Amino acid sequence: MENNNLIAATAGFVRDTLKNAEGGHDWSHIHRVWTNAKLIAQTEKADPLVVELAALLHDIADSKFHNGDEEIGPTTAGKYLNSMNVDAGIVEHVQQIIRHMSFKSSFDNPAFHSPELAIVQDADRLDAIGAIGIARAFTYGGFKGRELYNPQIKPNLNMSKEEYKNSSAPTINHFYEKLLLLKDKMNTETGKKLAQQRHEFMEAYLQQFYMECGQ
Ligand code: ADP
Ligand code: NI
């Protein structure tokens, strides 16, 4: 199958599969990550087909909804790509990218690096910051029934992954615990540039937020 047709078919498959997904990882998230990955790839040496397939398939199945099975994403993506007769090398590479996208899995799996992973990871991180990142954070906080802000509860930068997941801290804390740290984790030059602009927007947002809280 021609690359363009394979990408279009994959986009259709992902959109269908994520029809009922929750707001943080729905098709609109995938679409933004796909768009940003293509943009970043323009200035990097990387295989564009692997970048696009990995961006499209990176959240195809979330271990959170499959009893913590960390392999569910790579397995689902692999089955789909094999059904489309994609080259084994490409399938394997896309699976490795999905496996290593999340912070947690980079501890559990042997180190894997590729320019294509660097690009898709940057594109996913960009979607957690800036105006969209703010919207996603408050959506998540609302879903969890968390306070917007509570000056008595200070951000905690030393939480374990488990404590972090179960924390009921106000959503503003998430900015200090994660979102404001992301710009220094970017891999690519274009990613860094885009992250810087979104970071400054979040800082301006927080200033306005505290001003409106009378601080
Ligand atoms: P990802 O799939 O990007 O690795 P998560 O599943 O952890 O990220 O989070 C999805 C979205 O929800 C992100 O935009 C993230 O910032 C937001 N989010 C995650 N944890 C929190 C939290 N404790 N408070 C507010 N927002 C959160
Ligand atoms: Ni994602």
TrEMBL record:
What's a Pfam family this protein contains? HD
Q: Could you tell me which residue ranges the HD domain spans?
A: 26-129
Q: Which residues cross the membrane?
A: none
Against SMART domains, the record matches this protein to: HDc
Question: PROSITE patterns in the record, alphabetically?
Answer: HD
PANTHER family, per database record: HD_PDEASE DOMAIN-CONTAINING PROTEIN, SUPERFAMILY HYDROLASE, PUTATIVE (AFU_ORTHOLOGUE AFUA_1G03035)-RELATED
Q: What is this protein called?
A: HD domain-containing protein
Q: State the organism named in the record.
A: Mucilaginibacter sabulilitoris
Classification of source organism: Bacteria, Pseudomonadati, Bacteroidota, Sphingobacteriia, Sphingobacteriales
